Amino acid sequence: MVINMDDNLKRMQGESDNEYFYRVCQMKDSLGFTWPQMAQIFNDEFGCNKTESAYRKTWAAFKNVFEANSDKIIGEDKYLEEIKKAKYELEKERQKLYATKVEANRSLRFDSREELFYENIRDAIQTLTMPKVIAGNSDYLIDYSREYVLTIADIQAGANFEIETNEYSLSICEERFNKLLDMLVEYIQFNNISKFYIVELADTIQGILRLTDLKLNEVPVVEATVTVARLIANFLNELSAYCYIDYYHTPTSNHSQSRPIGSKANELVHEDMEYVIGHYIADMLKYNTRVSVHLNDGYDYIEVPIYNFNVMAMHGHTIKNLETALKDLSVKHRKLIDYVFIGHFHNDRIISGNEHDSHDTELLVCPSFQGTDPYAFNKLGKSSKAACKMFIFDKKYGCVGTEKFILN
């Protein structure tokens, strides 16, 4: 057994056996040495062949006597005063080392859990077959006098419940996408639309915000994540047969946060399954030239370029006051926000801000794809139909109309 003898382990000039023994023993824990290693150091230094037990007992006795009489000894012996100071510094370094190891282990555990989580998602995705890109059966001339924006909010896939006014499951979620597809195809053909926007406002999965969600979830979060991503991608793929689509996916929300039990809301704001869902949709549609997928990783909003208006989309869980939201967001982002699409509130309304040029600035609160859930129905006494909403924009006058697609 070879021990690296650094300068701290060498005997100081004029240092007695006892002084050297006491000083080196004080460093044992910070150096990470075992007593057999300590015995080798002392045997080499003192030229003897004692066992580690002998040195350990000598140290224990030495320390007991010293600590029992340290005040008297230190008052009389300047050298021991220096040892006491050294003891304090060594203990401080030992605590630093311990704190570093604890933090490193915590970081290692977190990274390992995160890596395993995403590996599970990757493995689940690999079991799916890629959809076939559907060639468009119409190619109208683009009408630049109107822009159409469909909002989809609060899908919360994975939730499974039945209440008096609504029921929901993954199979019902799929049925609603099919119904929405049929309604939109008819709407597109009737209005001769060649291109429109779809803005997904997050809370795409039910997630696990609290322990009660374990009872509400039909399937594990990973499975719900992959399933809903595929549903949205297939929906966009089939709809692209009838028009060009600019798809915008809101990057964060509350239900989709990867929130370990015990962590607080928004504590790990960037640990969000919307990232996985948005990128999976983009990957599935990367060969479909009729669908453009837009993401905004690292932020809690995404901008939607409608004419020359400043339009922002976000989930809405971080908005404290709906009445002042437009002003607050304009101040935060240092520019006038004309329109903000939000979900989260499971109902729809339009809240006016101020007039600007030839249009009003407005907060556009969008309905829920999921519809009324047990909490809203039983605890809050509120309910609203499952729906998606289309907003119609004029180049000069801004938002001039809406269409509501009821899904249940």
Give a short summary of the structure.
It is built from twelve helices and 13 strands.
Protein described:
- By secondary structure, this protein is an alpha/beta fold.
- The chain has helices at 17-26, 28-31, 35-46, 52-68, 70-76, 78-126, 170-191, 212-216, 221-239, 273-284, 325-333, 374-380, and strands at residues 146-152, 161-162, 167-168, 195-200, 244-249, 291-294, 301-303, 311-314, 339-342, 349-356, 359-365, 387-394, 398-406.
- It has 12 helices and 13 strands.
- It has a 6-stranded mixed β-sheet. A 5-stranded mixed β-sheet has the order 7-8-9-11-10, with helices on one face.
Strand content: 15-25%
Shape: elongated
Overall mean pLDDT stands at: 82
Helix vs. strand class: alpha/beta
Largest pleated sheet: 6 strands, mixed
Alpha carbon gyration radius: 33 Å
List the total number of helices. Answer: 12
Q: Which blocks of ≥5 consecutive residues have pLDDT under 50?
A: 265-270
Distance between the termini: 76 Å
User: What is the element string, with H for helices and E for strands?
Assistant: HHHHHHEEEHEHHEHEEEHEEEHEE
* Largest beta sheet: strand ordering: 6-5-4-1-12-13
What percent of the residues sit in helical stretches (DSSP H or I)?
40-55%
- How many β strands by DSSP? 13
